[in-house]
Amino acid sequence: MFDSGVGGLTVLNALMTALPHESFLYLGDTARVPYGSKPLAMVAGFASEITAELITRGVKAVVIACNTASAASLPSLAREVAVPVWGVVEPGVAAARASVGSTGSAKRVAVLGTEATIRTRAYQDRLEAAGIATWSRACPLFVPIVEEGASDSTIATLVTEHYLGDMPPVDAVILGCTHYPLLKPVLRQVLGNDIVLIDSSEVVASTVAAGLRDSGLLRQAGDGHTSERLSYLVTGDVGTFMNTAVRLGGQNAPATRVDLGARRQPAAAPGKDAGSRADRLVS
User: Is 139 considered catalytic here?
Assistant: First the structure.
């Protein structure tokens, strides 16, 4: 699975709980974070490049644990690769629809996300097609607030009030970025207890579990695998990634820096020893 940085760890934690016998490889593309302010075509290219990298490492399925990358690259990416690929948008939409019921005209759902996620209307169009009204807001300051460990600060409260001060009455709020679940306490404080907060992590986990089972790929107890339960690949600084990951509730696990740009280097001339493929990919 992959994300632009550490936000996808909320999805990873849910997957590890739902799939106790599976091994996980998590790639954090911290060298190119954030995705939310970048052109969608660029993000789609990142997603394709990362998915190719993961597939060369023998993964049997890929989870795009990033709302922006999911919105930018699915479903086209899933049609291009030979393994199942899941994102976080469709499960989030399904959870929102379930939370407000099947009657659409009297229901409204708010969508909070990065600039790119909101711009794609990945959530809004799907909900409105089901007869559910939407209101959306890009909240770019939420991610740095979370990563600075300030989720329960006065600043977090003031920024939340700033973003949501003009929000109309809604029945549910989709947390359309994997960082946002870590702001649930302040969101609840500002919005009150009557609005449903949609965190797609658990829905993604159940969707992936069902998909693996239906594809005959679900590992059962006693299957005898000996792989690491979890390992990280990081495109930026490994120490910074791990410090932030552990601070935000991620699990401590082996981490290696990976150079995705190595795949774009010209091939070695015939007869010259360019080293192993793995040596060129990982530094």
Answer: no
Contact (CB, 8 A) for 174 and 98 = no
89-199 fold: Rossmann fold (3.40.50)
Taking a C-beta distance cutoff of 8 angstroms, is the pair 112, 175 a contact?
Answer: yes
Q: Is the pLDDT of residue 54 over 60?
A: yes
Domain covering 2-87+202-281 in this structure, CATH number: 3.40.50.1860
Question: Strand, coil or helix: what is 279?
Answer: helix
Pick the catalytic residue: 1, 66, 95, 175?
A: 66
What are the tens digits of pLDDT across the range 71-107? 999 999 999 999 999 999 999 999 999 998 855 456 9
Cα 255 to Cα 232: distance, rounded to the nearest angstrom: 4
Catalytic-role residue among 177, 187, 205, 238: 177
Please list the residue range(s) of the chain that carry CATH number 3.40.50.1860: 2-87+202-281, 89-199
Beta-strand pair 85-86/62-63: parallel
- What are the CB-based long-range contacts (under 8 Å, 24+) for 85-88? 85/51, 85/61, 86/61, 86/62, 86/204, 86/207, 86/208, 86/211, 87/63, 88/11, 88/64, 88/178, 88/200, 88/204
Coil vs helix vs strand at 255: strand
What is the structure's pLDDT at 106?
Answer: 66
Cite the DSSP H helix spans in 19-88. 40-56, 67-73, 76-80
Cα distance between residue 87 and residue 32, in whole Å: 19
Rounded to whole angstroms, the Cα distance separating 24 from 165 reads: 40
Mean pLDDT of all residues belonging to the chain: 89
User: What pLDDT score does 16 carry?
Assistant: 96
- How far CA 26 is from CA of 6, 78, 177, 253, in Å, comes to 10, 18, 17, 10
pTM of the model: 0.86
Q: How far apart are CA 190 and CA 227, in angstroms?
A: 44
Which residues, 6 or more positions from 272, have their beta carbon under 8 angstroms from its beta carbon?
A: none
